[in-house]
Write a structure and sequence with these properties.
β1 and β2 form a beta hairpin. By secondary structure, the chain is of the alpha+beta class.
Amino acid sequence: MMLDELLVRSGGVCEFCGDTTRLGGVDVAPVGPVVLCAVCRGERADAPGHWRCLEGAAWSGVPAVQYAVWRRLRSLEEDWAQELRAGMVLLPEVQMVVDAPAAVVHLDANGITLAAGDTVVLIKDLPVKGSSMVAKRGTAVRGITLVADNAGQIEGRVDGQRIVILTEFVKKK
C-alpha cells in the first residue's frame, strides 16, 4: 500500500495515538503496513503515559494495527500493558500469526544468518562423536543442511562423513 492509501485508511492520523504530525508508513511483517507518528515509530522521545493510547488502538478492526499494538505491548514493562495484552481479543487473521510457531533462524559464530546450501568454515578442531575422526579448523563444509527444530545445529559432510555441527563453531564463507 502506498502512503496515500494508508492515510485514507487511517483518516490521516496515527493509528496508535491519533496524532496528525510527522506521519509515516511502517511495515509490520507479516500482516502489512500501519500509519504511525514519529513518537510511535520511535524517532522522537515519548511523553510519560504516551503508550496508554494503545488501550484504544488494541480494538482496531485493521489486522496490521492490532498486531502492531500486540507486539508493542510486549515490549512495555508496565502492569497495565501486560494486562491489556493478555486480555486482547484478536481478529482471526491476527490470532493465526500470533499462534504460528516462530521460525528457527540459524546463525554462525559471527551472528550471520545461515541458509540451506551455504558453505561454512570450521573455526575450531571438532572431534566427531562415535568416530576417531577430528574435523580440522579451516575445513570448508559445502552444501549444509539446517536442522529444522534446532537453531544451534546444522548438518554437513566432512571427509565424506555426514555429521551434525554446532553453529557456534562455524562461520559463513
